[in-house]
UniProtKB/TrEMBL annotation:
The protein, known as: N-acyl phosphatidylethanolamine phospholipase D
Signal peptide as annotated in the record: none
Source organism superkingdom: Eukaryota
Organism listed in the record: Acrasis kona
SUPFAM superfamilies on file: Metallo-hydrolase/oxidoreductase
Gene Ontology CC: cytoplasm
Annotated Metallo-beta-lactamase domain residues: 127-361
Gene3D superfamilies, alphabetized: Ribonuclease Z/Hydroxyacylglutathione hydrolase-like
Length: 447
């Protein structure tokens, strides 16, 4: 992009937009690349953008790819890990609870795990889908090579109820399934909105012909957008009566410590992150419901505490958090980009989550740890900390345990505790032993 009066540089556009000299819509229309920074959130250069090489970055951590010799070694260890396929008792599946899915309790959060990082979340009449991946392999060549599903996807796009919101955390193949996006647009038409990180929108428009400009919304870290319910303008095959939502859903794109790549030449060209959701009912007698989808992330000492300060409901924390517990091996390579089970528990406490569900395990083998190890280690650390843990419970026994793992296809209804109950849970966890000390001293034993 040349530096002349008729074609301003990206840097000039930032200054112009910050001083309201150039309308944001005009920037987006005339200079698509400027969407990296041309939005109402940043009035100065964002600290997570590197102008020198035109990419995004983690503000305090550099995630570097290891030498080729180490990459070959990691790949060989991953191939060894793929040799073990858990039996049905070890890694269970459940048929979808269609009655619950089609008639959800609007006052509480209900979610169904579709595998890996894909959740179908229902609250207040809104249907939300996170990182939808429905294909058999997560690779660029899905029919030939790459990690294969250990368990089949519990339901298809065509079987899902109408979808209001789809969020995509980043562009890695185990989180962004292009065919799934095409199918979701085909089935839901203009009724669905897609919320994505900066610079993903142009790529999606290029690859998804039916995706309209209004349907796809790019977001930067800490940017919030209010999603208001729209009755289906195009009939959906699974609509049951007239759909109504009794409130609004605020969607916030939150930082994570990760990276992005979709081909050999676009490393960190697109942003990455997690999403926070706040449902505010019209009926003020009902409380807000807040849930958080972390996407992929490593752990650091300040990030999640900042999310707690800037996003969590000060009166009730986060009702439900979907946190990755797998793909952490080997640690010398993955520690900066993937949380292990110990760190996932720390994240839950950092953000003040009442209830967390572990994900990013048991679906695709993309790392070196044994397939079932994330569940085992999670259980161990929660036992040490005297926190509630639940695994594979019947529908009528669901509660609001501090941390759970669920079956592929299982629908979980959160019976939300009060703010006082949540405070008692965290107080009990720290009553006899300090949480930070446990996490620090037990790490080498557990991982």
């Amino acid at each position: 992009m040349g530096n002349n009066s008729s074609q301003p540089t990206v840097e000039q556009m930032v200054v112009n937009e910050a001083t309201h000299m150039m309308p944001p819509d005009q920037i987006v229309q005339d200079h698509p690349d400027a969407t990296v920074i041309a939005h109402p959130i940043n009035t100065v250069y964002p600290k997570h953008f590197n102008f020198e090489d035109n990419t995004f970055k983690n503000p305090d951590v550099t995630i570097a790819q290891p030498p080729m010799t180490d990459q070959i070694r990691i790949y060989s260890e991953i191939m060894m890990a793929r040799q073990f396929v858990p039996n049905e008792h070890q890694l269970r599946t459940m048929k979808p609870n269609w009655e619950a899915i089609h008639s959800p309790n609007h006052n509480n959060i209900q979610y169904t795990w579709l595998g890996h990082s894909s959740f179908f979340v229902q609250v207040g009449g809104f249907n939300v889908l996170t990182d939808p991946v429905f294909r058999q392999r997560c690779s660029f060549f899905q029919h030939l090579i790459g990690p294969k599903r250990l368990r089949p996807v519990p339901m298809t796009v065509d079987e899902l109820p109408p979808i209001d919101v789809v969020v995509i955390s980043h562009n890695h193949t185990d989180h962004l399934d292009l065919q799934a996006v095409k199918d979701l647009v085909r089935v839901n038409k203009q009724n669905m909105k897609l919320y994505v990180p900066l610079r993903m929108k142009a790529w999606l428009h290029k690859n998804v012909e039916e995706l309209s400009n209004e349907q796809c919304i790019e977001m930067d870290w800490w940017q919030s957008i209010q999603h208001t319910f729209r009755p289906n303008v195009v009939p959906h095959p699974h609509s049951v009566g007239e759909q109504t939502a009794s409130g609004v859903l605020d969607i916030t794109f939150l930082p994570s410590q990760h990276w992005s790549v979709r081909n050999l030449f676009d490393t960190n060209y697109q942003l990455w992150g997690g999403f926070g959701f706040t449902y505010t009912p019209n009926n003020t007698t009902f409380p807000k419901r807040v849930f958080y989808f972390a996407g992929d992330t490593g752990y650091n000492n300040y990030l999640f505490k900042e999310i707690r300060t800037r996003f969590s409901d000060p009166n009730g924390g986060i009702d439900v958090a979907f946190l990755p517990i797998g793909a952490y091996g080997p640690r010398w390579f993955s520690a900066s980009q993937h949380t292990d089970p110990v760190e996932a528990v720390q994240v839950a406490q950092d953000i003040n989550a009442r209830h967390s569900c572990g994900c990013h395990f048991g679906t695709f083998v993309v790392s070196t740890e044994p397939v079932l190890e994330p569940i085992e280690k999670l259980h161990q650390v929660l036992q040490l900390m005297k926190l509630d843990y639940q695994q594979y419970q019947p529908w009528n026994e669901h509660g609001d345990n501090f941390f759970v793992t669920v079956c592929h296809g299982e629908t979980y209804l959160c019976k939300h505790k009060t703010i006082a109950d949540n405070a008692n849970v965290l107080e009990g966890a720290n009553k006899d032993q300090n949480t930070a000390v446990i996490l620090q001293t037990e790490r080498e034993k557990l991982i």
